[in-house]
Each structure stands twice: as structure tokens, then as C-alpha cells.
Amino acid sequence: MTGTASPPATEAARPAPAGPHHRPGLARWRDFSLIPVIFVLGVIGFIVSPAFLTRDNLVGVIQQSTELGLLVLGEALILISGRMDLSLESTIGLAPVLALWLVMPAHGSRFAGLELLPTWTAIPLCLAVGAAVGATNGFLILALRVNGFIATLGMLTMLRGLQVGISEGRSLVDVPDSFAYLGRADWLGVPAAVWICLALFALGGAALGYFRHGRALYAIGGNPEAARAAGIRVDRITWIVLAIGGVLAAFAGILYTGHYGAVSAGQGNGWIFQVFAAAVIGGIGLKGGRGTLFGALTGVLTLQLVINVMTLGGVPPLWTQFLNGMIIIVALVVSRYTSGEKQD
Amino acid sequence: MEQPVVHAEGIVKRYGPTVALDGARLTVRPGEAHALVGRNGAGKSTLVSVLTGMERPDAGRVAFGGEPAPGWGDTAAWQRRVACVYQKSMTVPELTVAENLYLNRFQEAGGRAIRWRALRERARRLLAEYGVDVDPGARIRELGVEQRQFVEIARALSFGARLIVLDEPTARLDAAGIARLFGKLRELRAQGVAFLFISHHLQEVYELCDTVTVFRDARHVLTAPVAGLAEDALVAAMTGEAAGAPRTVRTAAGPVGEPVLRAEGLALAGQFAPLDLTIRAGEVVGLAGATASGNTAIGETLAGLRAPDAGRIAVRGRPVRTGSVPHALAAGIGYVPEDRHREGLVPGRSVAENATLTVTDQLGPLGTVLPSRTREFARRMIASLDIRTTGPGQPVSGLSGGNQQKVVIARALAREPAVLVAVRPTNGVDVKSKEALLGVVRQVADGGSGALIVSDELDDLRVCDRVLAVFHGRITAAFGPGRRDHELVAAMEGMAADGPPAGEGTAAAHGTDGTDSTEGTAS
User: Fold this and answer.
1) Using the beta-carbon criterion (under 8 Å), do B345 and A216 form an inter-chain contact?
2) Does some domain include residue A87?
């Protein structure tokens, strides 16, 4: 993966002072604290079921990680800049529905659209909806200065309701091929979604590590007053990050829709919990200014592997929710100690 | 002879290979005001932790009133002997004074439910006993800083403690607040309460304390009565350098040049009235004023953090868009904020990252920030400002206060500003760092830039070629190099300056004869 947040460690340059809290060199490995967990999960999977270590299964796990991964990517950027956005889980459903509603034919299919725009505009429209949702969040949080948690929680509910209202509570099945392509296609034998997701993580990692506006996110999240005094346009950048988060959620919606060939009425419902869990397990600080995208990615993979291993292990479906929650808590505790840092 | 309230000797405390205290000792007698001074890292905080039962020493013994200290971890017993009022308030801002005083011991013995009226009554009695004039029903956040400190002191005394440690109690107070605090401390001493007073302000030590103990490099260096101890000798004990070398005040190395910053009619309602200000190349101008005088707001307005209601700012003759930090930076205004923790540093990030925050556009092509260039840039800064760090990658939170402040100044200087605006640049740093930091400001001016020091600290203002005093948002007086400290203090306190006549002051303030007042200061 990409180089990410911490600039290539320079602790090695000179011997570090041995303070009580300083463990030289370890900081560099913080990002890799989930790798052993992923390895152990692999071993457990191998023991539980011979089907685990097959190409189809592993590709399946990774593909299923892509949609969650994009949400986590967006949320990680927002969390690093010291904000949060709960409404991402509604954007993943609303953006495709709104875009398809505008382009689908008014007659002749089960879902009556408005047919206002040509079909090819569905994807740009979908992304634009995501950006608009993010910008609205930005307006609420940055211009009106209302509480971000409640504002985006309100957006979550409102947008979910908008989706239900437009789609009349039904799933949207006849999705245009152009819209479904990215979620369905294989490139070089691997789902296109996987390549795209990896590319976006790489891009995000590079931005955070090597570009001034990306690096500014850490300063904004770590101490917004200091960032402002140093000439960083805090509000503008935060606003852009919120919009990018919305775009990424909308893009996750495109991939998800293509993958399953339909927009279900409850698409994304309840995901935000997994998104936050993956981010925090992956080392993103909820108070801002801390964490890397590589860590966030390992967090996503860990969660998806757990679910996969559980499925293969034949856990009764009625118990999966219980186990899911329990495993998130266990993963949280494990990552807190492997990284050696308090999560706050 | 009466037993000392606290007697510690042979205290050793190690953190890994770092020795924080090496055979330290301290004795405080009842009713004494005992100053504990030393440079950052001398071991003062560690000693306080040991004396208050927060840290267990590796060796040595502590006795309170002749009896051995309570067992480690017996918090209640420690609280009955000693308490510390930290720089950071340990009160809950949203709760009332009464609730804070009796936090977690709301009920009198035996009671179950909280009886609010009785609680307030108890609080009133406690405050009255120590003559603290605070309403027990007021919320802590509505109080001034020194009133909060009174509440904390009263709380400590209510536990039975007869030794109060004050850690930099005056750092966030203005002169009037300090006077009230000291008055209260003197009253309490008359009742037999002893104080251990930690401060970087040696004047305060002379004003308040009768004994001073100096620590240096984890060791006890000196304990002596304050009266009869020359300030030079005290500073020498703190720094370990030979006494006698007077702290020289360097002023402009050469004649001052063209104006680098000119503000005209700058005004911000509620903060400061329209004012003109000119800073010339090669000079350091002081903007003196007490905490609420508006001088900080003037500095913040020049830096672009606040948008003025009226007025223009020009740097080297070119107008600057007001109210925008990026524009101010680009125009060449470097800014050192008042509080490095609140507005200066991003705590979890590295020295390199903090030092280069203003120059990220110069560290690589096309908006990239190359780690190698960042490190290179930071190394230059570390070398030129003599920042004590393990390297550019060290988290900035691991540095001492003085070195953290140097990082903030490094960032302000990174763009080679035409004018440096520094608000209280030596806030909370030790004597040695203070001189180094002020030396840096002086160097900036000698290098052909201008500098503005916004401060109420006489030490800061001493390096200035001329000082403008601000009172209630107006420049009330101007002083040239021949000024006396007491004139300056009087002007900051709003008393009629017995220095230069007002007419001359106003003229200098407007920059029309700014050169006159600084001529002939080459040293």
C-alpha cells in the first residue's frame, strides 16, 4: 500500500531519549498492528473450512470489502480532520436512487423515473448527489455551527426517508448496464471494484502523506486553532473533505448497486456502525489528527474476514448479530493493545 | 522549634535512564512562602509530584509536620496534608462553586441524599473563613482566573492541608489579578498556611516569598532567604553560569530603515479604537498592555486572525487583505500566537511537521510535500534556533516548554517575514530560553525585518527599541530607549505616565517621528 500519514520515520536518525512513554521505532509499526490479527483470522478460517483458502472465497471477501472500504476511506478523512459524518450510510443508498430516478424511463418499467436526463449521466449525477450531501453537512456544521453528530444523524434519517419516499419503499431492480458496469466487471481476473478501491486508497494515502492539502488534515484535526494561525484555510478544507466523503459514499453506492444488480430499499442501513468500528480498529482517532489510511484499510479487511469466517464456520444466522458485535469489541481491545495506544 | 510542614530529603526519582531527581531536599516551615525555582527540566514538577503523593520516589523520605508521609496511594491522607493548585484549573467549569468545593463529598457524614441548601451553607462558611469573596452558587466558568484559584485553595484547606503548592499561579493573570492573589496569600500565611510557590517570574518571588530554593539538573542547588539574595546570584544559581554577568539589553544594531509595516486607522469594535502603527526595518517595537487592554487583539488583527472593522495594513508599501491569515503570511507577516498549546502546536505531530506548517507550499513541486525536504528544512530550523530535540521526527509534545516555543517561532520565521508579530513570545518558558527567544527576535530585526512584541512582560519589552503602551484599546503612551520599568508599568495600568508628555507619545505612536525615538541606540 501507499506510504501514509507518518512521514518516513526519522527517529532512527539519532538515538531517542528513553522517557517513560517513548518506545523508539515502535511508532512506525503502529500501522501494522492488525496484520497479525488478519493472519490469525486466516489460520482460523483455514481450520474451520476448506472453502476458506480458495480463490473464489478470498476474492469474494475482498470485493465485499470494497463498498465498506470506500465508506471507511471517506469517514477516515473526515475523522482525521476532526469531524464526523454519520450520514454516509444513507448516501450510499440515496445517491444511486436519486440518480436513477432522474434518468430512468417514465413508462415501461416497474420503477417510473422522470426521464429528465440521458442514461449516461447517471454516474456523474450519483457522484454529484454525494457531493451535495457532503456540502450540506458542511453548511450545517461549518456555517451554522450546529453539532456535527446530531446534524449528520438528522441527515442520516432524512436521507434514508427521502430514498424510501422516492423508491416507494421498493428495491430498484432494472439498473442500466452502464451504471452497473463498474460493480460487475472483472479486470485482469479481479473485480474492477477491487482495483478502483485500491487506487482510491493509494490516492488518499499519497495525498495525506505527500501533499500539502492532505497533510493539512492532520493539523486541522490535531489543533484547528494552530492550523488557522499557520495560514491553513481550515473551514474551506474541512468543507471539501466532507464533500469528498459524500462522493466516496455515492461511489460505494454505484459499486454496490452494480455488484448486486439492484438498489435495495435498505441499502447501507446500519453500516455506519461498521464504518466507525473499522476506522477505530484501524487506528483512526475519533478526536481527530491521528491515524492512517493503511490502518483503516486493515481495519476493513479484519472485519470482513471475521464475518466470512463466521459464515463458513456455520454460525446459526440468528446468532450472527450477537457475534458480530462481540467480535468488534474484541477486535477493538486487541488493536488497542497491539498498537499500544489509547483510543479516544 | 516548630516542626516543618514538609521536610523531604534524599529524594531520587528515575524515569528509565533519565534521572529526574537526584538526592533532592526541601524544607518548608509553617506560614512560610517558599519559592521553588529552576529552569524547565530542573525537576520542580517531579518534586511536586512526589510531595503531593502522585509519584512514589525511588529513594528518600518525606515527612509532614515531623511524621512520615502517608502510604503511597492513600489519597485521602495526602489530601489532608498537602494540595497543589496547578496551572491548569482542576475545577469543573459547569458546576457551582459549592459543588466544586465539596466534589464527591456532598453529604455530611451519615446523610444519603444531597441537601443542597446545607451544602451551599457549608460552602459559604468555608469561603468566609478564608475571606474569599465568591458566591457559592456561581458557576465556576463565570469566575475570573484568580477567583478559581481561590476556590481551589479553599478546597485544599478544607481537607486540612496546611501546605499549598502553587504551580505558576500568575501565568494567566493580569497585574490586578496578581495583586489580589498575592493579597489573599499573605492573609492565609498569617493563618499559618505555608505555600510552595513555583514561578518563572523572579520579581514575584522577591515580592511574595521569604525563602527560595533553586533546583538545577535534578539537584538541589541553593536554599536561601530571599532578602539579601541578589537577582544576579539567583539567576546564576538557576543557570549554573558565573554570576555578575549583567543581562544585557541589546537594541538596534544600526539605524532603522524604511517602514516594513504600516497600519492606518485600524479598529475593531470592543477591542481597540482606530490606531496608526508603523514598524521600520531593523527595529523591535513593543506593544505593552495588560491582559484585557486590547494589545493581543491588535496583534491578532495584524496576523489576519481577526478582521478589523476599519483600517488598512500595508507591508513594504503593498496593501494586505485584512482578516485573512494566508494573505498576511504571503505578504510577509510572521505570527507567534499567544498560547502555544491552544494556537501554536499540533501536539501529536512531529517537530518537522509543526515547524513547516506555514511553508508547505515550498516543500515540493505541484502541491506535494516531500518528506526529505521537510526534514531538511526542519534540520536547518533546529540548528539555527538551537532547538533541543532528538531529531525532526520527534513528536513536539515531547519537547520542553522553551523548545516548543522555539518551534512556534521557527514556523513564524520559516517564510522569512518582513515583520514578525509575536504575542507574549516567552510565555511560560524558563529564564535561559527566555533570553534565547528574545535574542532571536532581536536577530530578526538586525537582519532587516521589523518585529512587534505584544506583551505585558517587562523582560519581553526590554529588548524593544520603543514601546507603545495600550490601555483600554488605545495607545496611551510611547517610550523610547531611555524608559524606566515603573513608567511602563504605570502606563499599562492606565495611570498617567510620568514619562514623556502625551503629545510626543502620540506622535511616536503614529510613526511620524518613530525614527527620532530610536536614533542613537546603536550599542
Assistant:
1) no
2) yes
Q: In total, how many domains does chain A have? A: 1
| A77 within domain boundaries | yes
Please tell me whether residue B471 adopts helix, strand or coil conformation: strand
Q: How far is B235 from chain A (nearest CA, A)?
A: 28
Residues sharing a CB contact under 8 Å with residue A321, sequence separation 6 or more, in sequence order? none
Q: Which of B317, B323, B313, B325 is nearest to B275 (CA)?
A: B313
Sort out which chain B residues have CB atoms less than 8 A from A19's CB and list them. 15-16, 18, 398
Closest by CA to B455, choosing from B484, B433, B488, is B488
Number of C-alpha atoms within 13 angstroms, CB side, residue B180?
14
Task: Provide CB contacts within 8 A for B432, sequence distance 6+.
Answer: B39, B238, B239, B402
User: Average of pLDDT values for B313-320?
Assistant: 93
Task: Pick B346's closest partner by Cβ from A209, A210, A223.
Answer: A223
CB atoms near residue B190 (< 10 Å)? 8
Cell of B256: 532603522
> What pLDDT digit, counting tens, does each position of A263-296 carry?
888 888 889 998 999 998 888 988 888 899 999 9
Residues contacting residue B240 through CB under 8 Å, at least 6 positions apart? B216, B217, B221
- Domain span holding position A309: 29-339
β-bridge pairing B194-198 and B33-37: parallel
Length of chain A: 344
CATH classification of the domain holding A137: 1.10.3470
Domains belonging to chain B, first-starting first, are 6-239 (3.40.50.300), 259-518 (3.40.50.300)
What cell does B62 get? Answer: 518525606
| In-domain check, residue A16 | no
Query: Which chain B residue lies closest to A10 (C-alpha atoms)?
Result: B393
Chain A nearest CA to B42, separation (Å): 15
Residue A199's pLDDT band (cuts 50, 70, 90)? very high
Contacts of B390 in chain A (CB under 8 A): 11, 13-17
Range list of β-strands (E), B1-119:
6-15, 18-28, 33-37, 59-64, 67-68, 82-85
The answer to the question of residue A207 being in a domain is: yes
**B348 neighbourhood in chain A, CB within 8 Å:** 222, 289-290
3-state secondary structure of B37: strand
d(Cα A208, Cα A217) in Å, to the nearest integer? 8
Q: What is the structure's pLDDT at B269?
A: 87
User: Chain centroid to CA B518: how far?
Assistant: 28
ipTM: 0.78
Mean pLDDT, residues B376-403 taken together: 87
Q: Residues B164-184: pLDDT tens digits?
A: 999 888 777 777 788 888 988
Q: Are B63 and B69 in contact (CB under 8 A)?
A: yes
Chain B residues in contact with A210 by the CB 8 A cut-off are: 364, 368-371
Spell out the alpha helix ranges (H) of B35-96: 44-51, 75-79
* B466-471 and B474-479 beta bridge pairing: antiparallel
Contact pairs from chain A to chain B, CB under 8 Å: 117
Q: Which residues contact residue B399 at a Cβ distance below 8 angstroms, ignoring those fewer than 6 apart? A: B351, B387, B388, B389, B407
Q: Residue B454 to residues A288, B286, B321, B429, B522: CA-CA distances in angstroms?
A: 32, 6, 21, 16, 23
**What's the distance, CA B202 to chain centroid?**
13
Pairing of strands B163-167, B194-198: parallel
